[in-house]
Amino acid sequence: MADARAVFFDFGGTLFDYETTAPGERACLIELARAAGITATSQDIRRAYRSALKNVFYQYLPRPYYLHRDMFQDALQATAAQFGTTFTQEQLARYRAAQHQRREQDFCLRDGVTETLVALRQRGLHLGIVSNADNDQFSHLLQLSRLGPCFDSLLSSEDAQSCKPDSAIFSHALAQADCAPNQAYFVGDSLQQDIVGANRAGMRSVLIWSRSDTDPPDSSTQPRHVIRSISEILDIV
Hints:
single chain, six-stranded parallel sheet, 9 helices, 6 strands
């Protein structure tokens, strides 16, 4: 096996846990629904959004490239449709502004992220982020994380014009690091996007699975490694 030269990380769900921003996201959703006159319970609104987002996610997943703002807007409008209404562009703009404010309040890195990145850099490895995100969201979250100086390369799906698991975004990342696929690790939290894409690209896939009450699901796609915390990557690389 070739010596490792690079470690790439997904961003959302990997370097930070979506659970830390979930309360704010839920609050923004309910505010949006109320602004549109939806009087259903908060629980029913959240349930409707989860169902809509799941359906829309799988509609978008086969596409090699898309803007995430379009996917989330489609999910929101599908949610509104379940209550017989639609969201106006003004309401959606206020919703997005509220999301940014809440993320600034709630954002938190996973334990050990900064220390792990420093240790990997000390080993002479190229470090990169490869994120399915539009540039405005990616830049905002990167600013909140203060992780920019820890990385040698930063790649959004909008810059790559490719969304994981499409192969082009992985090829672009490998070119940035000037390394072969079997010289690179890819760490992510999504089997459908991160692990499928990394495996297809020939990279050494690592699934971060932080749930303590269950193991990763059995599926046709399996990562080469499973870790429960970011620092465990130091025992693998």
